[in-house]
Each structure stands twice: as structure tokens, then as C-alpha cells.
Amino acid sequence: MKIFLCRLSQPIFIWKLLTIKENNLRETEAYVYGSLLVISSFANAILYNWYIFNLRNLSMKVRIACSSLIYRKSLKLNKNNISKTATGQIVNLLSNDLSRFDKLFLQIHYLWAAPLEALIILCLLYVMLDPKGTLGISLFFAFIPIQLYMGKKYSDFRLETAIKTDERVRLINEILSGIQVIKMYTWEKIFIKFTNSIRKQEIRYIRKTSYLKALQNAFNKFLSKGALFLCVMVYIFTGNRLQSQYVFVIKSFYNLLQNNMTTNFPEAIKNIAEASVSVKRIEQFLLYNEIKHNKIQEMQPKKGVYLEKISARWSSAVSDTLSEISFEATLGQLVTIVGTVGSGKTSLINVILHELPLAKGRINIAGNISYASQEPWLFGGTIKQNILFGQPLDDVKYEEVVNVCALNHDFELLPYGDNSIVGDRGITLSGGQKARINLARAVYRNADIYLLDDPLSAVDASVGKQLFNECILNYLKNKCVVLVTHQLQYLKKSDIIYLLKNGKIIASGNYEHIRNCGEDFARLLNKEVEYEDNSTDNAMNQKLLNQKEEKQFYENRSFGTIPLKVYFSYLLSGGWCASSVIVIMFIVSQSLLSGVDYFESYW
Ligand SMILES: Nc1ncnc2c1ncn2[C@@H]1O[C@H](COP(=O)(O)OP(=O)(O)OP(=O)(O)O)[C@@H](O)[C@H]1O
């Protein structure tokens, strides 16, 4: 409000100074108005900067608060919803969507301040000069519905762009995380095609937004000059003699309007429209279901996992992934889950972790859980940090875990042992090494229940045997261990085996019992062997095929600084014709704008 008063008072003081003679003002009064003009300009500068500083501060706080909200939410999402939310979407929410708040806060007050200011200027012109002086302002008001319509269009385009950006960022993330595989199989061209096609769709919406922006800018430029022109013409054609003070004061009022009504007001509408899309996207993300942790029910005699006739599905569109499953694993037991590929073993582990919500049945987890996922996950840091995962270092325990997970030999081979950095610009580990570090992280954590999802698949037979005997059978002997495996040779040592088929338990009990209860178990054994043979053959064939392709595909690589021709090709990427038109239009429009200003001063 104070800024408002400072800005509006300036043309009034200018008017008073210009009409000294007509109003027979004394010299001291002229000094007073002159000083007030300087003071109001100075106060305006100070207050405006203070206002912007506070708004930026506020928008920064809101952005940080929302970032941490999204971050915390992403940690609480259950797996079902994580699969709906690609990493790309979260990255887009954190970067693109939240950045809309910065602009929104800077401009939001113009939504009410600009029309109010226009209204006050309308009254001032009416009182101070002539009713005709107000005519041009009506042009500003006439354009408000058009600007609101454009705001709506901005919001539509923003939503479409955001969806396409999500897709593109997700694809790029996947390409980056799997770049080694892509390069190994020489799939670069296919992925370049995918990326280009998604990028093209994204650019289509960005282009529409840019056209709208250009149209709005053209409107705004026309509006400010057109309003002044209309006002002056009406004044002359109604028989008045044009005086310089009249033009000067009207122009300074219209300059204020030009800033607020033709720049800040439409920007405010555009930013609100874009931010409302971002708010909806963030809201949708925050409303995703979270992992629900059941309270430990102490009535169970022993710590462990108890599932009673549970059914669960990943999405309502598919049939039950798991149906009518009763499962029990208690402290001191090694419980093994076996079954063909896709039979629901990992899904069962996800039910225990509360990642997959139950459709039916009861679940009771007594004790805390440590989990080693089927796909090893490592973060950028040392191997030691990956194993400790924030837990305090206990040297003896750490040594033991490294031993039982058969990592000692690997540490000897690595340049800095367990202090070697993995991930970005660090060393690249083999699949087996990653799997064992993943297992070591789970084992190092002190828990009652250990859920180990197929940790023995990525290692060779002798290391697998060592892991099973030393880690699972010996080190974790007093714990409740739930092991998912395809390695049927280890089943003899299991206390209970659950045989899964199509999401149902078709047999459970000890090894002898399972072996005698039907032919499924024997068939499973044979299938596993067949599958492994086929998959090896397929991998070999694929490799040969790719080696053939590799002969035709050469990778280009350059060194040194970026050559000038790269900048030129960037500038001309829209085509010679479009690029030349842009340059010519820029020169012409700038000359016209400067010409208008020159003509105004001459006139
Ligand atoms: N995150 C997920 N979102 C949606 N569906 C899933 C998800 N994880 C698994 N499924 C589906 O659930 C079914 C069972 O898969 P699951 O991974 O549990 O099998 P599995 O027995 O562990 O297989 P494998 O031996 O290959 O690990 C499959 O049809 C799979 O497509």
C-alpha cells in the first residue's frame, strides 16, 4: 500500500510543478513539491526492494518446505504407488513445478493491485484533468477478459508440457541408469529415437506456450501505446488545445499502468494458472497411499511373521497376485520360498514389508525387519558406507559380516579395499559383488526378521554355498530368516519350505514332506534347469547379433573445446529460413519501438 501511494503521488507532484504558473503558486511551494517528488521516488525505491526481498524470502521458504514434503512423501510411498510415480515425475515436481512458486509470489499481488491502481488513476485523471483523459484506461479494462482467457490457456498448455516432461525425464533417467547395458548392446540409436519422439511432443506444447506468450507481449505493447494515443486523439478531436503538461502527466500515469496492467497483471494471471497446475500435480502426488505399518501385536508367542489367508494385488485392474496365503516364520527358523518365475515370491516379501497392501486376510509382524532386495541397490559412497548404511561402526561385527558375505577377497582386489567409492566416478562392481554388499548391509543391521530376496542367484556355486552355510545357516541361526531362492540344492537345510505357484501356496512343510507331496516340486527343478539353459542360449544369440550390429555402428567422439560450427548448428537448428526471419523481425521490431519513442519526444 505504501509503495502504491509513493508511485501514485509522483505524477501528482509532477502535475503540480508543471502548472505552477497557471495556479499562481509561490516559489516555496514549488520547492516543497519538488522535494516531495524526490522523497517519494526515494521511498518507492527502498520500499519496493524491501518488498521484493521479503517476497523472495517467503517463496524460498515455501519452496524448501514443499521440497522436503515431497522428499519425505517419496520415502513413505508404498511400492505399488512408486511404480505409478516414475523418478522423472518426482524430479520434475522438485525442479519445474516448485520453481513456479518463485514467480507466483513475486507477482501474485498484482492480481488485485493492478486493477485497483488503474481504478485510482481513472479517478485522479477524471478529477485532475478532464473526463476524456480517462478514455484510454477503458482499453486496459477491456483487455482483462482476454488476459484471463489467455491465463486459462497457459494452464492447459502447462499441464500438457508437464506430463510430457515427466515422460522425458523418466526415459532419460532410465537411459542413464542403464547406459552400460545400452552401450554394450549398441542400442543407442533406438534410444535416441525414443528420446527424440518424446522431446518432439514436449516441444510442441512449449511452442504453443511461446506463441501465446508472443501474442500477449504484442497485445501489451499495443495496449500501452494505443491507450495513450486514444486518449490524446479524443482530447484533440473534442476541440481542446493540446498542452505539454497534459500529455506529460497522462504519460506518467500511463507509464505506471503500462508496468502493472500490461506486464505484471498478465504475468500474475499466467503464473497463477501455471502454479495452480503445479499445486494440483503436487497434491496428486501427496495423496498417494503410504506404507501402513501394523502395530506389533505382542499376543504372538514368538517373534516372527504371521500371515493368515492373505490376498493381495498390485493394481485393481489385475487379478490377485497372491491369494489365500497362510504363512508363518518364527525366530530361529530358516523359511524358504520357492516357485517358478513370476509365481509371487517377491510379492509375498512385499506384503510382509507392507509395500503391497492386503485385499484380504490378516498380517502380524512381531519384531523388526532387515531386508535385502532382489535387485541390489548401492548409493554413491564407499563400500563401507554402503554396508553400514548409517549404523555405527562395530569393528568386530563388521569384520564378521564381511567374512560371512565372502567380501574379503573382493576388498583385496579393489584399489582402496572397502574404502573404494562406488557409483558416480567410482569403481564399477560386478553383479555378484553388488549382491553381496546388498546382503552384507541387511545382515549388518541388527534385526529379528531377515527377508532375503534371492541373494544367491548372482554368485557362482562355491560362493553361493559359502554364503548359505556361513551367513544364512550359521551367522543368522538364531534369527527368523525368510529366504527366496531358485537354488533348490539348499532346501534340505530349510526348516519350512513354501512352494508357490500362480500366487498360491501349493505345498508347505519340510524338504521330505514337499518332495513326497506331488510332482510339482520335481517339475520345478527340471524347469529351472531348462530355463537357465534357454536363457544362456538367448543371451549368447543376442550377443552375437549385437556384435554384428556393432560392426556397422561407430561412436563419434571429439576432444578439446566446442567448435564454432556446433554453436552455429544450434542457432540454425530451427532451419535457415526461421532463423533469418527471427533475426529480421527482431531488428524491425526494435527499430519500430525506438522510432515510436523518438517520434514521441520530437512531437
Ligand atoms: N511393483 C510391481 N508392480 C506391479 N506388478 C508387479 C510388481 N512386482 C511384481 N508384479 C507382478 O506380480 C507378479 C508376481 O511377481 P513377483 O516378482 O512376485 O514374482 P517372483 O516369483 O518373485 O518372480 P522371480 O522369480 O522372477 O523373482 C508378476 O505378474 C509381476 O508382474
* Count of distinct structural domains: 3
Topology, number of strands: 11
Bound molecules: adenosine-5'-triphosphate
pLDDT averaged over residues: 81
Label the structural class. alpha/beta
Number of helices: 20
Helical percentage: 55-70%
Q: Could you name the CATH topology of the largest domain?
A: ABC transporter transmembrane region fold
Radius of gyration, in angstroms, nearest whole number: 36 Å
What is the class of the largest domain in the CATH system? Mainly Alpha
Q: Can you tell me the overall shape?
A: elongated
GO molecular function: ABC-type transporter activity; ATP binding; ATP hydrolysis activity
Keywords: ATP-binding, Membrane, Nucleotide-binding, Transmembrane, Transmembrane helix, Transport
Membrane topology: Multi-pass membrane protein
Domain ABC transmembrane type-1: 5-240
How would you summarize this macromolecular structure in one to three sentences?
By secondary structure, this protein is an alpha/beta fold. It folds into 3 domains: 2-290, ABC transporter transmembrane region fold; 350-356 and 366-539, P-loop containing nucleotide triphosphate hydrolases (Rossmann fold), CATH 3.40.50.300; 564-603.
Walk me through the structure:
The protein has 603 residues and is of the alpha/beta class. It has three domains: 2-290, Up-down Bundle (ABC transporter transmembrane region fold); 350-356 and 366-539, P-loop containing nucleotide triphosphate hydrolases (Rossmann fold), CATH 3.40.50; 564-603. The chain contains 20 helices and eleven strands. The strands form three sheets. The protein has a six-stranded mixed β-sheet with strand order 5-8-9-3-10-11, with helices on both faces. Strand 8, helix 16 and strand 9 (480-484) form a beta-alpha-beta unit. The structure holds adenosine-5'-triphosphate. Adenosine-5'-triphosphate (ATP) is lined by residues 79, 83, 314, 321, 339, 341-347, 374.
